[in-house]
Write a structure and sequence with these properties.
CATH class: Mainly Beta
Number of strands: 8
Strand order of the largest sheet: 1-2-3-4-5-6-7-8
Shape: elongated
Number of helices: 1
Low-confidence stretches: 18-24
Order of helices and strands: HEEEEEEEE
Length: 186
Amino acid sequence: MIRIAPLLVTLIAVSLSLSAQAHDPEHAANYSRPGLYLSGGGYFALSTSNEGFPGAETPSWQPDPSLDFRIGWREHERLAMEIDFGWVPSTKGIEYGNWLLGANLKYFLAEDRVQPYLIAGAGAMWARPPGATSTKIDWAFRQGVGVDYYISHHWALTAETTFVWGVGQVWNNYFLALNFGAMYRF
């Protein structure tokens, strides 16, 4: 992580130094305009869980289908905040898996039709790995990268990859997610 920090600082500094492109409202869509948006998608998560859960199976990476829903506000050309709800059910049954409720911050690296971004977030994780007799709740954190591709003034296709990890009671419960979805900008 220490080697990545200078690269991220440089990337953010370069993107801040770029002048925002002026958009003529009569001829071009303003894809970086402030406002409310809704997004949802499905994703594929490689997850693992902590053997500290009573009765849980030994940790191993396993693929799980997942759902994600977000409501957000684009405050600035390069900054958005959102509330995120995610569900990562286990392939061993819907009574097992992870529930996530958190807040994310997105930093956009471009303002055109294609908008790559960095994402970081924090929230609560409810975790119950396969075989566990109880559910544990604690903090979780998210970091990753993504891209929005606008197909119209209001609609965009999204792709994102994030790493989510828990702390405290869910400290060794984490997953790597690859998310695909759609977004509607009001």
